[in-house]
Automatic annotation (TrEMBL), chain A:
Domain of life the protein comes from: Bacteria
SUPFAM superfamilies assigned: P-loop containing nucleoside triphosphate hydrolases
Family of this protein: Belongs to the ABC transporter superfamily. Macrolide exporter (TC 3.A.1.122) family.
Protein's name according to its UniProt entry: Putative ABC transport system ATP-binding protein
Classification lineage: Bacteria, Pseudomonadati, Balneolota, Balneolia, Balneolales
Organism: Gracilimonas mengyeensis
Nucleotide-binding among keywords: yes
Domain ABC transporter: 4-234
Keywords: ATP-binding, Nucleotide-binding, Transport
Cross-referenced InterPro entries: AAA+_ATPase, ABC_transporter-like_ATP-bd, ABC_transporter-like_CS, ABC_transpr_LolD-like, MacB-like_ATP-bd, P-loop_NTPase
CC terms in the record's Gene Ontology section: membrane protein complex; plasma membrane
GO molecular function terms attached to this record: ATP binding; ATP hydrolysis activity; transmembrane transporter activity
Any Pfam family hit: ABC_tran
UniProtKB/TrEMBL annotation, chain B:
Lineage: Bacteria, Pseudomonadati, Balneolota, Balneolia, Balneolales
Classification via InterPro entries: ABC3_permease_C, Lipoprotein-release_system, MacB_PCD
Organism superkingdom: Bacteria
Subcellular location: Cell membrane
Transmembrane portions of the chain: 21-45, 266-292, 312-338, 372-390
Name of the protein: ABC-type transport system, involved in lipoprotein release, permease component
Positions of the ABC3 transporter permease C-terminal domain: 270-400
Taxonomic source organism: Gracilimonas mengyeensis
Pfam families: FtsX, MacB_PCD
UniProt topology in membrane: Multi-pass membrane protein
GO biological process terms, semicolon-separated: lipoprotein localization to outer membrane
Entry similarity comment: Belongs to the ABC-4 integral membrane protein family. LolC/E subfamily.
C-alpha cells in the first residue's frame, strides 16, 4: 500500500532570475515498510525531493500525498503539526540539540506532541535501548561520537512512531564502522518494526544494502530498481 | 507539557554560553542599578534644592496684603496680624507660623553698598519656619537684650567687607513713604546652600524694624510651614476661602521652583528611558548573535515540528530569564546603595561654588520617590523584552530548509 505518492513534482529555484530546475516532473510511490535509497550525482535533486516529501519545501508544480492527504494543501501550521506527528527526520549533521542529553533529545519530540512525562521518559529509554545506546542516556551530543549521535538522531526520528523516516545523507559524516553499525540498526528496525526509511545518499555502502534504489539524474527519475534478497549485500 | 519543554530548553539555552549570559545579566543588572541610582541621585538633588529654597527663604505658604507683591511698599502691611496668626494656628495642617516685617533697602558699610531684603522677625517663631538660624557660622543670633542687631549672609559680609560686630547702615522707606535709616551691628553671619540668598537677605529683630518704620508690629508677610509642602496649593485654596489677603503657595511665589518639582518626574523617566534604550541595543545584539549562531539548530527544530510560535517563545523566554536574573539583583543592589548613600551622603564640595550659586547643597542624599522602584524595574523588564522581539522575529522568519543547510 502506498503511503507516499509523489506526482509530477517540479521544483524551480530562482524562478525570477536564472531559473534552476532541481526537479523535473518526478513521480514516485513509496510503499509501507520500504527501505529506499534515492541516489544520484550532486545536483540531481535528491535533497530537494526529500525536502518536498517531508513538507519542508513546496514544489513549484505537482502534488505530494501522504496517506491520501495532499500535504501542500494544508496551512503552514497544520503542515508543521503534520511533520511532528507523521514524519521522522534524520539529518546529515545529526542536528541534535546540544544542551539536551540523549534521552532529552528524544523526549523533546514527544513533549512537543503533548505526551505525559512518564510516557516521554519510558519511550526515550526504549528507543535508546533499541539503538544500542542505553548506557549513554545522560550524555550530551558533545560527549558522543558521530555514529552515536546519528543513532540518537534515528531514535529521535522514531520517537513519535512516524509513518516514515526521511534521512538526508545519514552516513555522510560517518566512518566505515559507524556507517555499517547505523545501517545494521536501520535495517533491523525496518525488518523487525516495519519502519519505512527513505534516504538520500552518495554512499555506495548504503546503496548496496538498500531494498529499492531510485536514481535521479538532472531532476528526473532515471532508474527505479527493486532489489531482491539475492542482490542485496549484507 | 509543550510549554514546559520549551521553558526547560530556553533555560538550558541561556547557559549554553555562560560567559555571554553572565555579561548580559551583568549589563541588565548594572543598567537597572544605574537607572535607579541616577534617578535617586537626581531626585535627591532636586528635592534638596526645593527644600533648601523653602526652608531658608520661601516657606511653604506666604500671606501678604493684596497689593504688597505688586509694589513691595512698607505701607501695604497686614491688618490685625495677631488675630490672623491665631486663626492660622487653628488649622491642623499648619505646623508653624512666622509673622515678618519685610522691607527693601540699601545696606551700606564703609566699603560698599548693596540692595537687600530685610526681614524683621521674632526669632522664636521664625526658627520654626525657617532653617536660616541653623546655618549660622559666626555669632549667636539676634539676642533679646541687644538693640539693632542683624544677621547677614557670608556673601553680603564679603561684599560689604563686614565681620562679626561690624556696623552697617540700612536705608529704606517707612510706612509713610519717607526715607529712613538705621545703624545695625552684625550679630551673626549665616552661610546657607543658596549663595544668592546669602548675598541679598538680612534678618533683624521685628521691634527694631518697627521702630524705624514708624509703626510698631508692622507685618508684611506671614510665612507658614505645613505638614506636607506638596499639598501647599490645596492648603492655599482652603485658607483663601476665609481671607481677603493674598495667600500664595511656594509654587506661586517661585514658579521656577514649581516647574523644577513638576518636571522632576519627566526628567527622571527620560533618564531611565535613555538607559533602557542603551540596554535594549546591547540585548538585541546579544540575542541576535544567539539566534544567528543557532540557525541550523532552529531550522532543525522547525523541520521536526516545533511551530513558529514556540520558536518565538523560546527566544523570548531566553531573554526573559536573563532579565529576571539581572533586574531583581540590579534592584537589590540599587536599594542597598541608596540605603547606604542616603545616610552618608555624596560629598560634592569640590563643586561647592557652582552648586551654591544654584541654591544646591554640597552634600547630596539620594532618595527615590515612592513607586519609582517598581516602575523602573518594570521599565527595564519591558525594555529587555522589547529588545528580544527583533531576534525572536528573526528566528521566526528562518526557512527550515535553508537554515539546516547553513554551516
Amino acid at each position: 500500500m502506498s503511503i507516499i505518492q509523489v506526482r509530477d513534482v517540479t521544483k524551480v529555484y530562482n524562478k525570477e532570475q536564472v531559473p534552476v530546475h532541481a526537479l523535473n516532473g518526478v513521480s514516485l510511490d513509496i510503499e509501507e515498510g520500504e527501505f529506499t535509497a534515492i541516489v544520484g550525482p550532486s545536483g540531481s535533486g535528491k535533497t530537494t525531493l526529500l525536502n518536498i516529501i517531508g513538507g519542508l519545501d513546496e514544489p513549484t508544480e505537482g502534488t505530494v500525498e501522504i496517506h491520501d492527504t495532499k500535504i501542500f494543501s494544508m496551512s503552514e501550521s497544520k503542515l508543521i503539526d503534520f511533520r511532528l506527528h507523521h514524519i521522522g527526520f534524520v539529518f546529515q549533521a545529526y542536528n541534535l540539540i546540544p544542551v539536551l542529553t540523549a534521552k532529552e533529545n528524544i523526549a523533546f519530540i514527544l513533549q512537543m506532541q503533548g505526551r505525559p512525562q512518564k510516557e516521554c521518559t519510558h519511550r526515550s529509554m526504549e528507543l535508546l535501548k533499541m539503538v544500542g545506546l542505553e548506557d549513554k542516556v545522560d550524555k550530551r551530543p558533545s560527549e558522543l561520537s558521530g555514529g552515536q549521535q546519528q543513532r540518537v538522531a534515528v531514535a529521535r526520528a522514531l520517537a513519535s512512531k512516524p509513518d516514515f523516516v526521511l534521512a538526508d545523507e545519514p552516513t555522510a559524516n560517518l566512518d566505515s564502522a559507524s556507517t555499517a553499525n547505523l545501517l545494521d540498526m536501520m535495517l533491523r528496525l525496518n525488518e523487525e518494526e516495519s519502519i519505512t526509511f527513505i534516504f538520500s545518499t552518495h554512499d555506495q555502502r548504503v546503496v548496496e544494502r538498500a531494498r529499492r534504489v531510485v536514481t535521479l539524474v538532472d531532476g528526473k527519475v532515471d532508474t527505479d530498481e527493486e532489489r531482491t534478497e539475492k542482490n542485496i549485500e549484507h | 507539557m509543550k510549554f514546559w519543554a520549551i521553558l526547560k530548553l530556553s533555560w538550558k539555552n541561556v547557559w549554553r554560553n555562560p560567559l555571554r549570559s553572565t555579561v548580559v545579566i551583568m549589563a541588565v543588572l548594572l543598567g537597572t542599578w544605574a537607572g535607579i541610582f541616577s534617578t535617586a541621585l537626581m531626585s535627591g538633588l532636586s528635592m534638596q534644592y526645593i527644600k533648601n529654597q523653602l526652608d531658608t527663604s520661601i516657606a511653604h505658604l506666604q500671606i501678604h496684603h493684596p497689593k504688597y507683591q505688586e509694589e513691595n511698599l512698607p505701607r501695604y502691611y497686614i491688618p490685625n496680624p495677631d488675630s490672623l496668626v491665631d486663626a492660622l494656628q487653628q488649622y491642623d495642617f499648619v505646623q508653624s507660623v512666622s509673622p515678618r516685617t519685610v522691607v527693601q533697602g540699601l545696606a551700606s558699610s564703609t566699603a560698599n553698598s548693596y540692595g537687600v531684603t530685610v526681614k524683621g522677625i521674632v526669632t522664636e517663631m521664625d526658627t520654626l519656619v525657617s532653617d536660616v538660624h541653623e546655618y549660622l557660622k559666626e555669632g549667636e543670633g539676634l539676642a533679646e537684650t541687644s538693640r539693632n542687631t542683624v544677621l547677614i549672609g557670608d556673601n553680603l559680609a564679603k561684599r560689604l567687607k563686614l565681620e562679626l560686630r561690624s556696623r552697617m547702615v540700612i536705608n529704606f522707606q517707612d510706612v509713610e513713604g519717607n526715607l529712613t535709616a538705621g545703624a545695625f551691628r552684625v550679630a551673626g553671619i549665616f552661610d546657607t546652600p543658596n549663595s544668592v540668598f546669602d548675598e541679598t537677605h538680612v534678618f533683624a529683630k521685628q521691634e527694631d524694624l518697627g521702630r524705624l518704620l514708624g509703626r510698631s508690629h508692622t507685618i508684611h508677610e506671614v510665612a507658614l510651614r505645613v505638614d506636607d509642602f506638596k499639598q501647599a496649593d490645596a492648603y492655599r485654596d482652603s485658607l483663601a476661602q476665609t481671607s481677603s489677603l493674598q495667600i500664595e503657595s511656594w509654587g506661586d511665589v517661585s514658579p521656577s521652583l514649581r516647574y523644577t518639582d513638576s518636571s522632576l518626574d519627566f526628567v527622571l523617566y527620560i533618564i531611565m528611558v535613555i538607559i533602557a534604550i542603551a540596554l535594549t541595543f546591547g540585548i538585541i545584539n546579544t540575542m541576535l548573535m544567539a539566534v544567528l549562531e543557532r540557525t541550523q539548530e532552529l531550522g532543525m527544530l522547525m523541520a521536526i515540528g516545533v511551530n513558529r510560535l514556540r520558536t518565538f517563545s523560546m527566544v523570548m523566554l531566553e531573554t526573559l530569564f536573563l532579565t529576571m536574573v539581572g533586574v531583581p539583583f540590579g534592584m537589590l543592589l540599587s536599594w542597598a546603595t541608596i540605603q547606604w548613600v542616603s545616610n552618608v551622603g555624596i560629598d560634592l564640595s569640590a563643586f561647592a561654588q557652582g552648586l551654591e550659586e544654584y541654591g544646591m547643597s554640597t552634600v547630596v542624599y539620594p532618595q527615590l520617590p515612592e513607586g519609582y522602584f517598581l516602575n523602573i524595574g518594570l521599565l527595564m523588564l519591558v525594555a529587555t523584552l522589547l529588545a528580544a522581539v527583533y531576534p525572536s522575529i528573526k528566528a521566526l522568519k528562518l526557512n527550515p530548509v535553508q537554515a539546516i543547510r547553513k554551516v
